[in-house]
Amino acid sequence: MRNHQTPPRASVEPDFLGSCRKLQTGPAVLKDYVKSMKHYWHEAAFIPAVEDESHARKIAEQFLELREDSFTGGFVVRRFEELDNEEVRTWWINGECALVTAHPDTPGAEPAAVSIDAIAPIVRELDCWFVTADLARRNDGTWRLIEIGDGQVSDRPSSAPAIALVSALAEALQ
User: Fold this and answer.
1) Residue 61 buriedness (CB in 10 A; 0-12 / 13-18 / 19+)
2) Quick one: average pLDDT of 33-53?
3) In the chain, what are the domains?
4) HEC per residue, 20-31
5) In what helix (H) or strand (E) does residue 64 lie, and over which residues does it extend?
6) What are the b/e assignments for 39-56, b being 16+ CB within 10 Å?
7) Rounded Cα gap, residues 84 and 72, in angstroms
8) Helix, coil or strand: residue 88
9) Largest CA distance in the chain
């Protein structure tokens, strides 16, 4: 009989609490290197007060439980910012923004006019052929880069015609 070992489960300690302590006080948002648990906002994403280490640890433990074996790279703890629910997805091909659409979570929204100048160097530094970057507007009007990736899990909003994205990709291939 073989001895099957269960791989060690990721732990909340010590990096997570160290990150909370660096923020000192106030609310924060938790994710791992790949994914947030925004659909479980109160259970596994939003930390109302990082200084309440007991509650923060419970949020992180719930995050680990929900992510199971998909937990990737470690925790990312970011100061919470008030957003005005305006979000866009930008589509980049060979370091150039090819398309700006509504975010898939808000497909009926008209994509806002957004300046991509500040994130262009970040996208280019990734040196990836295809990148998506999501931006959200804070209550003070400032656009923030919220998420960036190589497009593997990116969806387009139902309001954005597929031909727009397919055409941009086809043009880049020529």
Assistant:
1) middle
2) 92
3) 15-79 (no CATH), 83-173 (3.30.470.20)
4) HHHHCCCCEEEE
5) helix 53-67
6) eeeeebbbbeebeeeeeb
7) 29
8) strand
9) 63
What is the Cα–Cα distance from 61 to 53, expressed in whole angstroms?
12
* Residues 172, 151: Cα–Cα separation, whole Å: 15
State how far the alpha carbon of 122 is from the alpha carbons of 9, 117, 118, 147, in Å. 33, 10, 8, 12
Phi-psi region of 107 (alpha: psi -120 to 50; beta: other; left: phi over 0): alpha
Q: 71-128: per-residue pLDDT in tens?
A: 888 899 999 999 887 889 999 999 999 888 888 887 778 777 888 899 999 999 999 9
Short-list 65, 81, 72, CA closest to 23: 81
- Give the strands of the sheet with 130-138, arranged side by side: 96-102, 83-93, 130-138, 143-149
pLDDT of res. 10: 58
Residue 100 and residue 111 in contact, taking contact as beta carbons nearer than 8 Å:
yes
